[in-house]
Design brief:
This protein has one domain. It is built from 3 helices and no strands. The longest helix is centred in the first third of the chain and has 81 residues.
Length: 139
Protein backbone atom coordinates (compact mmCIF):
# COMPACT_ATOMS: atom_id res chain seq x y z
CA UNK A 1 0.00 0.00 0.00
CA UNK A 2 2.89 2.35 0.75
CA UNK A 3 4.33 1.65 -2.71
CA UNK A 4 1.05 2.51 -4.44
CA UNK A 5 0.78 5.70 -2.38
CA UNK A 6 4.38 6.60 -3.31
CA UNK A 7 3.64 5.94 -7.00
CA UNK A 8 0.48 8.06 -6.80
CA UNK A 9 2.43 10.93 -5.20
CA UNK A 10 5.15 10.66 -7.88
CA UNK A 11 2.46 10.75 -10.59
CA UNK A 12 0.84 13.95 -9.24
CA UNK A 13 3.22 16.38 -11.03
CA UNK A 14 2.79 14.50 -14.32
CA UNK A 15 -0.98 14.43 -13.88
CA UNK A 16 -1.03 18.14 -13.03
CA UNK A 17 1.07 18.87 -16.12
CA UNK A 18 -1.30 16.83 -18.30
CA UNK A 19 -4.31 18.60 -16.74
CA UNK A 20 -2.67 22.00 -17.36
CA UNK A 21 -2.04 21.15 -21.02
CA UNK A 22 -5.60 19.84 -21.44
CA UNK A 23 -6.98 23.00 -19.82
CA UNK A 24 -4.87 25.27 -22.05
CA UNK A 25 -6.06 23.44 -25.19
CA UNK A 26 -9.68 23.54 -24.05
CA UNK A 27 -9.35 27.15 -22.94
CA UNK A 28 -7.98 28.19 -26.34
CA UNK A 29 -10.79 26.38 -28.12
CA UNK A 30 -13.32 27.95 -25.77
CA UNK A 31 -11.90 31.44 -26.33
CA UNK A 32 -11.97 30.93 -30.11
CA UNK A 33 -15.59 29.75 -29.90
CA UNK A 34 -16.56 32.60 -27.58
CA UNK A 35 -14.96 35.12 -29.93
CA UNK A 36 -16.89 33.76 -32.92
CA UNK A 37 -20.10 33.56 -30.93
CA UNK A 38 -19.63 37.10 -29.69
CA UNK A 39 -19.67 38.40 -33.26
CA UNK A 40 -22.74 36.27 -33.98
CA UNK A 41 -24.34 37.65 -30.85
CA UNK A 42 -23.76 41.21 -32.05
CA UNK A 43 -25.22 40.34 -35.43
CA UNK A 44 -28.26 38.67 -33.85
CA UNK A 45 -28.76 41.59 -31.48
CA UNK A 46 -28.72 44.00 -34.41
CA UNK A 47 -31.22 41.89 -36.34
CA UNK A 48 -33.48 41.44 -33.31
CA UNK A 49 -33.38 45.18 -32.63
CA UNK A 50 -34.40 45.85 -36.22
CA UNK A 51 -37.23 43.32 -36.03
CA UNK A 52 -38.47 44.82 -32.76
CA UNK A 53 -38.37 48.33 -34.22
CA UNK A 54 -40.32 47.21 -37.31
CA UNK A 55 -42.78 45.33 -35.12
CA UNK A 56 -43.45 48.51 -33.17
CA UNK A 57 -44.03 50.41 -36.42
CA UNK A 58 -46.26 47.63 -37.71
CA UNK A 59 -48.23 47.67 -34.45
CA UNK A 60 -49.07 51.35 -34.96
CA UNK A 61 -49.89 50.82 -38.65
CA UNK A 62 -52.25 47.94 -37.81
CA UNK A 63 -53.88 50.11 -35.16
CA UNK A 64 -54.38 52.88 -37.72
CA UNK A 65 -55.86 50.41 -40.23
CA UNK A 66 -58.21 49.06 -37.56
CA UNK A 67 -59.31 52.63 -36.81
CA UNK A 68 -59.86 53.27 -40.53
CA UNK A 69 -61.96 50.10 -40.86
CA UNK A 70 -63.98 51.06 -37.80
CA UNK A 71 -64.55 54.54 -39.24
CA UNK A 72 -65.59 53.03 -42.59
CA UNK A 73 -68.06 50.72 -40.85
CA UNK A 74 -69.51 53.66 -38.90
CA UNK A 75 -69.74 55.73 -42.07
CA UNK A 76 -71.54 52.93 -43.91
CA UNK A 77 -73.91 52.43 -40.95
CA UNK A 78 -74.65 56.16 -40.97
CA UNK A 79 -75.38 56.04 -44.72
CA UNK A 80 -77.69 53.04 -44.25
CA UNK A 81 -79.57 54.88 -41.50
CA UNK A 82 -79.70 58.11 -43.50
CA UNK A 83 -81.39 56.37 -46.43
CA UNK A 84 -83.51 54.02 -44.32
CA UNK A 85 -81.68 50.95 -45.64
CA UNK A 86 -80.99 47.76 -43.76
CA UNK A 87 -78.80 44.69 -44.03
CA UNK A 88 -81.61 42.90 -45.81
CA UNK A 89 -82.05 44.23 -49.33
CA UNK A 90 -85.66 45.22 -50.03
CA UNK A 91 -87.36 45.80 -53.38
CA UNK A 92 -87.95 49.45 -52.60
CA UNK A 93 -84.21 50.05 -51.98
CA UNK A 94 -83.58 50.63 -55.69
CA UNK A 95 -86.02 53.55 -55.59
CA UNK A 96 -84.08 55.38 -52.90
CA UNK A 97 -83.43 58.96 -53.99
CA UNK A 98 -79.77 59.99 -54.07
CA UNK A 99 -78.23 63.28 -55.02
CA UNK A 100 -74.72 63.62 -56.42
CA UNK A 101 -73.31 64.16 -52.94
CA UNK A 102 -74.83 61.00 -51.49
CA UNK A 103 -73.78 58.97 -54.55
CA UNK A 104 -70.24 60.25 -54.10
CA UNK A 105 -70.28 59.22 -50.43
CA UNK A 106 -71.49 55.72 -51.34
CA UNK A 107 -68.93 55.37 -54.14
CA UNK A 108 -66.18 56.44 -51.76
CA UNK A 109 -67.32 53.99 -49.08
CA UNK A 110 -67.49 51.15 -51.62
CA UNK A 111 -64.05 51.98 -53.03
CA UNK A 112 -62.62 51.91 -49.50
CA UNK A 113 -64.38 48.61 -48.88
CA UNK A 114 -62.91 47.15 -52.08
CA UNK A 115 -59.42 48.27 -51.03
CA UNK A 116 -59.53 46.09 -47.92
CA UNK A 117 -57.73 42.75 -48.30
CA UNK A 118 -60.69 41.12 -46.60
CA UNK A 119 -63.52 42.34 -44.47
CA UNK A 120 -66.25 41.03 -42.28
CA UNK A 121 -69.45 39.68 -43.80
CA UNK A 122 -71.51 42.39 -42.11
CA UNK A 123 -69.47 45.08 -43.85
CA UNK A 124 -69.96 43.31 -47.19
CA UNK A 125 -73.71 43.19 -46.55
CA UNK A 126 -73.72 46.87 -45.65
CA UNK A 127 -71.90 47.66 -48.90
CA UNK A 128 -74.31 45.51 -50.88
CA UNK A 129 -77.29 47.25 -49.35
CA UNK A 130 -75.84 50.65 -50.18
CA UNK A 131 -75.12 49.58 -53.76
CA UNK A 132 -78.58 48.10 -54.23
CA UNK A 133 -80.01 51.54 -53.55
CA UNK A 134 -78.08 53.09 -56.43
CA UNK A 135 -78.20 52.75 -60.19
CA UNK A 136 -74.46 52.60 -60.81
CA UNK A 137 -72.25 49.59 -61.05
CA UNK A 138 -68.86 49.07 -59.49
CA UNK A 139 -66.71 47.66 -62.26
Amino acid sequence: MADSLQNAIKAVPQNLQAAKIAWQNTDQEWLAFAERFHSWGDLLNAQISQVLAETETLHWEIGAIADDVKALKQSMAALLARFDLSAQVKLRDEFTHHNSSSLKLIKTAISHLKALPNCSPDMMIMGGSLLSSTRFKTG
